[in-house]
Structure formats: structure tokens, C-alpha cells
């Protein structure tokens, strides 16, 4: 008699997340699905191991291109930039945000430029829009974001989402979240109308984004 496999609600949610976004790590899994448990990291690790053992997920062990982490995926594991945007996503969930819209590799200006992610979330009574840019090997492209700003595409996308939520009259460029591993001597600056928030690769001081 074949062994019957029992999947929990969390197992199904994990698989659904990986199907939609491509990969997951143990820490991301803890942040999203086991953030209220005392041993959340261990529970996340066990459930990912179970799904791997039963052939639902594959695992890349300590992949250097993914920051030296174990990465669980179905078809193709994500790259370092994609994984850091999912670190950001999972931390939003951990801190109680409701994610309204999240798109990786957001195109601008007819695909001339891409941001690593664009998102809208609600926390408390605030609706917040972020563009996420992961910078691994060079400084942020200031001219890229000046052109995106001047095109009004990011304004218009945020305004459209805000209107869908029942709001009106939004004229706001999203916060620019720069994730890098540089100790900046001064704050990153694009122009007076773009708020730039810098986080390191570990996303230390993550709650600064809510200030």
C-alpha cells in the first residue's frame, strides 16, 4: 500500500509562493509562514525539507550566486537580485504589511530600464509604494532614475493602483529602496522629490522603511 503524504495548509502556501515567484529560502519561509512560532526557523526548515524529500521542490545547496544560501525551487532557481527582492517581500509580511502589488523586474520606458522590483503595500493606515533596486557591483544609476522620474511612468502606475484601492489625487514618486553592501559617507541622492532609503544585504534596520 503506497504511503499517503499529508500536506499542511502551510505546505500548500509554500508551494503556491514558489510557483508564483520562483524560489524560497528558509528565512523567507519563516518570515511569511512561521513568524509567530518560537521555533519558526526550524519549522520552516523541516517543511521545506519534507517538500524536497517528496519531490515537490528542488534544492540548491549553499549556492554562491544566491548569497551562499540553500535555495528551494521548482524549475529554475532565482538569481541574487531576485532573492533579495523576495527577502524584502518576506520582511514586509513579517512586519504586518498587506501586499497589494508586487512585480519583479519592473520595466520602464518601453523596456529601456528595469527595476529589480516594484511594490505597493498597506501597513496601518498607510498605503506605500516602493521601487527596489539591488546594487551588487556598482553604484546606483542616478540618470536611470531621473529619466524614470521625468517620464511620470512610476507616478502613473502608483496613481492607478491607488485609484483601484479607492483613493484619488495621488501625485507621488515611489520610495526608492537601494539594497547594497556599501557604507555610504552621505545619504544617496537622486533629486528633491525622490526619497531614497538604503539597506544592506541583510536588510538590517528594515523598519526604517516605514518612517
Short description:
This protein is an alpha/beta fold and 211 residues long. Helices cover 34% and strands 25% of the residues.
Q: Could you characterize what this model shows?
A:
The structure is a single chain. The protein is 34% helix and 25% strand. It is of the alpha/beta class. The relative contact order is 0.10.
Features:
single chain, 211 residues, alpha/beta, 5-stranded mixed sheet, 6 helices, 34% helix, 25% strand, globular
Layout of secondary structure:
Layout: H1 9-21, E1 23-24, H2 26-33, H3 40-53, E2 58-63, E3 69-73, H4 80-94, E4 98-108, E5 113-123, E6 126-134, H5 142-151, H6 153-164, E7 175-179, E8 196-199
Parallel strand pairs: 6-7, 7-8
Antiparallel strand pairs: 1-3, 2-3, 4-5, 5-6
Helix pairs in contact: 2-3, 2-4
Radius of gyration: 18 Å
Mean pLDDT: 91
Shape: globular
Number of helical segments? 6
Spatial sequence of strands, sheet with the most strands: 4-5-6-7-8
Number-wise, the strands total 8
Distance between the termini: 58 Å
Q: How would a crystallographer describe the biggest sheet?
A: 5 strands, mixed
What share of the residues lie within helices? 25-40%
Weakly predicted, low-confidence segments:
none
Question: Quaternary arrangement of the chains shown?
Answer: single chain
State the order of secondary-structure elements, H for helix, E for strand: HEHHEEHEEEHHEE
SS-based class: alpha/beta
Strand content bin = 25-35%
Amino acid at each position: 500500500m503506497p504511503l499517503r503524504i499529508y500536506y499542511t495548509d502551510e505546505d500548500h502556501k509554500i508551494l503556491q509562493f514558489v510557483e508564483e515567484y520562483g524560489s524560497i529560502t528558509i528565512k523567507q519561509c519563516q518570515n511569511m509562514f512561521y513568524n509567530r512560532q518560537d521555533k519558526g526557523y526550524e519549522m520552516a526548515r523541516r517543511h521545506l525539507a519534507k517538500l524536497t524529500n517528496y519531490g515537490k521542490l528542488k534544492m540548491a545547496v549553499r549556492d554562491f550566486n544566491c548569497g551562499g544560501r540553500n535555495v528551494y525551487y521548482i524549475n529554475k532557481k532565482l538569481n541574487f537580485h531576485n532573492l533579495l527582492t523576495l527577502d524584502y517581500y518576506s520582511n514586509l509580511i513579517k512586519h504586518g504589511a498587506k501586499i497589494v502589488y508586487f512585480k519583479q523586474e519592473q520595466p520602464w520606458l518601453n523596456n529601456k530600464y528595469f527595476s529589480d522590483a516594484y511594490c505597493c503595500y498597506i501597513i496601518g493606515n498607510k498605503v506605500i509604494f516602493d521601487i527596489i533596486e539591488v546594487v551588487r557591483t556598482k553604484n546606483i544609476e542616478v540618470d536611470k532614475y531621473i529619466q524614470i522620474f521625468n517620464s511620470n511612468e512610476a507616478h502613473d502606475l502608483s496613481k492607478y493602483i491607488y485609484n483601484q484601492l479607492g483613493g484619488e489625487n495621488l501625485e507621488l514618486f515611489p520610495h526608492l529602496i537601494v539594497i547594497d553592501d556599501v557604507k555610504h559617507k552621505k545619504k544617496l541622492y537622486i533629486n528633491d522629490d525622490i526619497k531614497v532609503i538604503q539597506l544592506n544585504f541583510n536588510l538590517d534596520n528594515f523598519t526604517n522603511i516605514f518612517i
